[in-house]
Target: GAF and ANTAR domain-containing protein
Amino acid sequence: MTESDLAASADTFARLAIELHDAPGVVETVDAVVQFALQALNCTYAGVALYARGSQAEIAAVTDEMVAEVYELQIATERGPLITALRDRTSVLIRDTGTDERWPEWAEKVAALGVRSVLDVPLVTGDAPQRTVGVLGLYSPEPDAFNEDEEGIAHILAQHASVAVASARQEETMAQAVDARKLVGQAMGILMERFDVDGDRAFAILKRYSQDTNTKLRDVAQHLIDTRKLPH
Model:
């Protein structure tokens, strides 16, 4: 990589850091990551799949519907470079889907979609398995598209993306928790006024309906606020 290339990459990542910091949520964060991948790397398509407990992986952002199809093929069978990168927390490089023999059935289908080179890089924020955020996938119609320099840049991008996505998820979780507390407090106020009970009793009523109907406490509160009735 030449000195001018290094300078361009540094400028690209400086802009990426600013854009990721300013992104208002997870959706906007992963969209920024895949768009920067197209600018900074020798790929034609890019995507991000995020780890979701229970479902293993979910498609978060793609630059082309073809990438979603590549992901879906792997998520459905739980086999492929995406799944390996996610579970083993290691990068997977396929130099040519036309000759790679690790996942022959998947590779054949992907080659038919026009993809020859694949690079899946895990998004992680630490050594523990629970620190796995997801996977950044890079795709090219050309065989052997990703050299060592490309892999190095992809790992830098993945590091930026890992921290940004984890932070955005945490902020969204905190915002949801605050929203839930506000809803429950509003619902408790309705019950306290209607039945002339104190706060502890009002909360106990909400909790009992939540348990009896197998409904989240937040949703019970929202239902009461919207309809002025408790769910049956």
User: Anything to note?
Assistant: The longest strand covers residues 132-140.
